[in-house]
Design brief:
The protein has one domain (25-188). 77% of the residues lie in helices and 3% in strands. It is built from 8 helices and 2 strands, in the order αααββααααα. It has a two-stranded antiparallel sheet with strand order 1-2. Helix 3 (28-54) runs parallel beside helix 5. It is globular and about 55 Å long.
């Protein structure tokens, strides 16, 4: 019940909820197991159902398979979890450059709660044609990250925008690299199964 309230509050009243989160000192491992792990299963399970059982249509041909569903579930889960950890690492790493407090647990809390809209909207992967809505929810997550930087990382107000933009740019670069590596691994394993 506490997790459901946190999800509701961070989405509907983020400024108030960041003030509450600011006073907490939750270790990142506890936040991962008690909050991120259950929420990250939403897009993973939805992707399995959407791509493995329901499928989608390409040029009038219905495409679905359990194998594809399992792969999509794994990719979505790894992408979300790695994305949270990598972004938290970058936020913490860059903190000193912007006069912010360097604290990985706070950076992890900031990023984890900022991912909430995208994790919850991961339910749209059940219908692959609606999966773009999860990405749209990710834009709201960026807003949450922006307004959460000051209370959680104690960044000076005049450096908040620069810190935010730098974190996003570095995260995008790292994410593209990780996606390329993960894609290469999955494509090579897919090619291996074809022969």
């Amino acid at each position: 019940m506490i997790m459901i309230n946190r999800v509701k509050q961070i989405i509907t009243a983020p400024k108030d909820e960041w003030a509450v989160i600011e006073g907490e000192n939750t270790p990142h491992v506890k936040l991962f197991t008690g909050y991120i792990l259950p929420l990250s299963l939403i897009p993973a399970i939805a992707a399995f159902i959407g791509y493995g059982l329901i499928g989608y249509t390409v040029f009038g041909i219905r495409v679905n398979s359990i194998d594809w569903g399992v792969r999509q579930a794994i990719v979505h889960w790894i992408t979300m979890v790695c994305g949270i950890y990598v972004t938290a690492f970058i936020v913490d790493l860059l903190a000193g450059n912007f006069g912010a407090q360097k604290n990985f647990d706070k950076a992890f809390s900031l990023v984890a709660y900022s991912y909430t809209p995208m994790l919850v909207a991961g339910i749209f992967y059940i219908l692959p044609s609606l999966s773009w809505l999860a990405s749209l929810a990710g834009l709201y997550g960026l807003y949450l990250l922006y307004i959460g930087l000051q209370p959680l990382m104690k960044v000076p107000a005049d450096k908040n925008l620069g810190y935010f933009v730098t974190c996003i740019v570095v995260t995008i670069i790292v994410s593209f690299a990780l996606t390329a590596i993960l894609g290469a691994i999955l494509l090579s394993s897919r090619a291996f199964h074809l022969f």
